[in-house]
């Protein structure tokens, strides 16, 4: 089984900040004059530096950002550093990339009225939408596309969704920026990113009574933002149909309306195809930095069946450089996780914010027992494959995509020696990490942090676990000297 390797990189400093004060519009704030009756303070308290400050007019009302100053260093970083030090990882590195205009993917609620639409995020703890036309986190072209959408809503009298009544036309909009344009120099691609607009429409399908307004709004966006317009910021327009009264943004039905159907991004050194229904990282630059530490993946297990098409399109561009077997499987890894663990020498997990499913944690903890059981078993791998009857395993095999060379039977009983954990939820990662270490089946070898969401208390963590307890975690001697015999 080919390995999923970590590339060798030069050692990086604890924190890397690539911010430049020249990208900020700052204003001079003179220090307050002392009262006439008091002498000047010889040691005045310095004002906060604006070099890495958010300076966003929506900060007080919007729930998106929670940290206004020192965007390059989330306050949670101190806790993370101490946590890793306590479990034997003293060199926890942290990279901070672009601090403003970094968000290339945004899901925004559409509320208000046709004459005065509100397009933005919910106010903290409520379902009151805060309009955020000048968001400093958004890629500038997302803000431009939102303004164009606002004009279309007003001009065409499109009714925003009313949660209380369940009425209206436009519920949400997803804006996704692709910076994949090889005709431009690399330094210009980000600035000239094009926006895929996905309109979440309050109807069952494209044949519903309000479909005329949907098509009119899509045509407005394409006419005023497409390739023949002066702006040319719209990549494509999609529709998603959702009538549920719950908080789920997307429904199950999608329709491509205008523009390019394929949405490509170049991250980790390869071209990636992403459907509007696929999960995509909002901070593509930071994600690219993370991926360049990883070289190969062998088996992809995904619960979202719609990602199969994206995988196949991506695989078509990889065929000429494939040196190993790469496969995609539509399955829920929380069901019989051992069936996916066996036969892999490296596991890469990238769970949602809630962390790993307990069944997967339990399977990872029990690897030593699995190894002992495998050594005592004489059943051939081929007979196991032949006798497999579990329906979810059979369905995953039937609905799989295989590229590259087939896996040899010699590797089919291998158990992983490396676990790579990519985390977007700090609290759940700590819990999963402690569970893995407590089993003594794994030890943490190294960890890297990434500033995926400047202005928030969220950090992305790339942690590398190795099998066994590890040298640094063995019990220390008490330090008491033995008494010499008399």
Integer-rounded radius of gyration: 26 Å
Helix content: 10-25%
The percentage of residues in β strands lies in 15-25%
CATH T-level fold name of the largest domain: Rossmann fold
State the secondary-structure class: alpha/beta
**What is the number of beta strands?**
18
Biased composition (Pro residues): 29-44
InterPro entries: RNA_M5U_MTase, SAM-dependent_MTases_sf, U5_MeTrfase_fam
GO molecular function, one term: RNA methyltransferase activity
Binding site for S-adenosyl-L-methionine: 302, 350
What does this structure look like?
This protein has 486 residues and is α/β, with parallel strands linked by helices. It has helices spanning 76-86, 140-156, 186-189, 211-225, 284-291, 307-316, 338-341, 358-365, 367-376, 381-387, 391-398, 426-438, and strands at residues 15-17, 93-96, 105-112, 117-122, 129-131, 170-178, 194-201, 234-241, 253-259, 264-267, 270-273, 299-302, 326-330, 346-349, 401-403, 418-423, 442-450, 460-467. The strands form 4 sheets. The chain has a 7-stranded mixed beta sheet with strand order 5-4-3-6-7-8-9. A 6-stranded mixed beta sheet has the order 1-2-17-18-16-14. α2 (140-156) crosses α4. The radius of gyration is 26 Å and the shape is globular. Residues 23-44 are annotated as: Disordered. Keywords: Methyltransferase, S-adenosyl-L-methionine, Transferase. The active site is at residue 424. InterPro entries: RNA_M5U_MTase, SAM-dependent_MTases_sf, U5_MeTrfase_fam.
